[in-house]
Amino acid sequence: MPGKRASEDVRREQILRAAFEVAVRDGIGGLTIRAVAAEAELSHALVIFHFQRKERLVHELLDWLIATTPVLRAPLEVADLPHAMDRLDAVLRQEMERLAREPRHTRLFLEFWAMGARDDAIRVRISAELERYRRAFHAIMEALLRAEPAAFAGATADGLAAMAVSWIHGCAVQAMIDPEHFDSGEYLAAVRGIVGQRG
Question: Is this model's pTM higher than 0.70 or not?
Fold first, then answer.
């Protein structure tokens, strides 16, 4: 019945949002069916009905976290910038500011990343997400290599994309550790200095 299906989807979303709150507050190790049920103000049995066991809830929480994280998009005003380095700078700024605004998502993603060392399914999912994110930078980096071949001699678009993702995740970690003193402008100035560009 269509009404019942929609209700189940809404209930699953409610449970996953509650699981996110519990995991952010108590860590993934503190995520229990009972804690999630209490956070969602639902019965323990209803959470078990939808997710059966904690392991499945943890894996589906990772999928939910990835699905609810915005994908990398270069706004039209960024695409219209005439210089490749300026386009990269604008995208790095956009991404670092977005991740700095979402420290809870970042912390939980990093916790899942650490869990991947012991859990094959989580490792595969995290690796696929990081690869998707790196691929999103590929076209920008190809344009940068065409525009600045001497500045990036020996570099590849894949290598530059991996470096950009590292910079962004490093920024997110810094913003999470010390949000009061983190300045994305300083971080970007340092990035531009490293690659020998001027802001």
Answer: yes
